[in-house]
Design brief:
A middle domain of Talin 1, Immunoglobulin-like, 2 domains, six-stranded mixed beta sheet, three-stranded mixed beta sheet, 13 helices
């Protein structure tokens, strides 16, 4: 089973982190509260009923009066900046939208399914503080076209390198030179680990190439245990080299198949921002706990490769983030700190000790820095989530 599948629950929890950038509504629906003003969402009326536009923290009740599911966003009508949003509002239901509003002009933008955006009447708030609450200028699908193209080119080049290096790994295994095979294994495995934001586009290939034995009935002896970690387990646990030749052949074949068909694959636009956070989240959960170490003790090297993969995602998203994420320089700073703390692990003769071999203070320092970086990256998913604006 792929470690990215195992991390799905944590990845989904990221949706809740969007509240640091935008106020999101709970997903449960209810009948409209009788004592509160209700703001309409629908084709026939958008933003109607907001008769008391007050400053400060508040809960607005949004009711879908139409016949189709709709989205609604509270925006600055002049710039399109979003201050809060509700998604998947079913017909006839009401959901609360929690916001904190300062002085300024606001309007609701309603997006019923299969209908162009409708912007409701503007309301002006005075008598409060200047606007300083969570807000973001929406990123559209078109905005993400250039980053997606650039990232796909990056992954394509990475797969070319990977295919060359798994060829070398296959030959090293076939030569029955265990030391050479171990070196070639690490080179190829780190190639793959640098491509983290594309794993969703790899389909079943990800499990075949980089899956673990977790969940398999027979564990590391299960026939379904394949790819890098199966080969790692054999190379570092003295399995007979001739028996590993077929494992290396299969891995090389899977990599070439993936490389050859990747040109027609599609990377989900939402994956870029999500993976910026998820790559390092998985590093904390798997590499820095030793859960994916099948004998090589290369967790620190893998964490550094994951850091390279995170930088690659940020590089393509940077043009969108510069004007939307005020803390981008702090993210860069924590990326540098994370690299420094990982590289500070002693590497006698070029081989860093396994994570389990680090003393407690060093492990705590590494986990603390990577944990802080992971939190700094989390808002990027909400900022770069593609949104309809028309």
């Amino acid at each position: 089973m792929s470690r990215w599948v195992l991390g799905l629950v944590l990845a989904l929890s990221l949706l809740l982190f969007g509240s640091l950038i935008l106020w999101r509504t709970p997903t449960s629906a209810s009948l409209a509260p009788a004592a509160e003003q209700v703001i309409t969402v629908g084709r026939s009326g958008c933003g109607q009923g907001w008769t008391r536009p007050d400053p400060g923290p508040q809960t607005l009740q949004l009711r879908n009066t139409g016949s189709v599911t709709a989205e609604a966003a509270l925006i600055d009508p002049a710039t399109g900046t979003v201050y809060g949003e509700v998604e998947g509002l079913a017909p006839g239901t009401t959901r609360p939208l929690e916001v904190s509003l300062g002085n300024g002009t606001y309007a609701f933008r309603c997006l019923p399914e299969e209908t162009d955006a409708i912007v409701g009447p503007s309301v002006t708030i005075t008598g409060g503080q200047e606007r300083s609450g969570p807000a973001v200028v929406p990123v559209t699908g078109n905005d993400l076209l250039a980053p997606l193209k650039a990232y796909k080119e990056y992954v394509g080049g990475g797969l070319d390198t990977l295919a060359t290096d798994t060829d070398a790994l296959r030959e090293a295994v076939r030569s029955q030179n265990r030391a050479a095979a171990q070196t070639a294994w690490l080179t190829a495995h780190l190639d793959y680990e640098r491509l983290g934001a594309a794993y969703g586009a790899f389909g079943d290939s990800d499990g075949a190439i980089n899956g673990t034995a977790d969940g398999l009935p027979a564990g590391t002896t299960d026939p379904g245990f394949t790819g890098f970690h199966r080969l790692e387990n054999g190379l570092w646990h003295n399995e007979a080299m001739p028996a590993l030749a077929a494992v290396a052949d299969d891995l090389d074949t899977e990599v070439h198949k993936l490389r050859d068909r990747f040109g027609s694959a599609q990377i989900d636009a939402a994956d870029l921002g999500l993976r910026a956070h998820e790559i390092m989240e998985n590093t904390l959960q798997f590499e820095l706990t030793g859960r994916t170490d099948y004998g090589s003790g290369t967790g620190i090297a893998t964490a550094l490769a994951n850091l390279d993969g995170t930088r690659a995602v940020l590089n393509v998203l940077r043009p969108l983030l510069v004007s939307r994420l005020s803390a981008l320089s702090q993210v860069d700073d924590w990326l540098n700190r994370a690299e420094a703390v990982l590289r500070s692990v002693p590497s006698p003769e070029g081989s860093r000790p396994p994570v389990a071999g680090l003393d407690r203070p060093r492990r705590e320092k590494i986990n603390g820095v990577i944990g802080e970086l992971t939190e700094r990256l989390a808002p990027i998913a909400a900022i770069t989530e593609p949104r309809r604006t028309s």
